[in-house]
Amino acid sequence: MNMQRFSELSGLSPHTLRYYEKIGLLKHIQRNCSGHRVYSSKDLTWVEFIVRLKETAMPLADILQYARLREQGSTSLAARQALLEAHQQQLKQHIEQQRTHLQALQHKISLYQQQKVT
Prior knowledge:
By secondary structure, the chain is mainly alpha-helical. The chain has five helices and two strands. It has a domain at 1-55: Multidrug-efflux Transporter Regulator, Chain: A, Domain 2. It has helices at 3-10, 14-23, 41-55, 60-71, 77-117, and strands spanning 30-31, 37-38. A two-stranded antiparallel ribbon has the order 1-2. Strand 1 (30-31) and strand 2 form a beta hairpin. The longest helix has 41 residues, at 77-117. The N and C termini lie far apart (62 Å).
């Protein structure tokens, strides 16, 4: 698929896709005879995973580290797992913190609602 279609499917701008290619997150992107990028379904699956990691607040440096490990193939499975497990733990802590914030907001809203009733 061409860049425009890939951009639509991935939700990333062409600028972001070119940037990801430049920094090494997207590698081995094929080109057609005109030199235009041609993306595959594997590229889309990989970009969707990158987006998921970004949306869970994984730092770009860690995503790049994961990408480098991924390039090494099966010899890096344990290292990739460890990286994802560390991120998982950070994400769980963040979610718990957000739950605490949500409870505090709910309590404050409840106080305001009680004041309206009285």
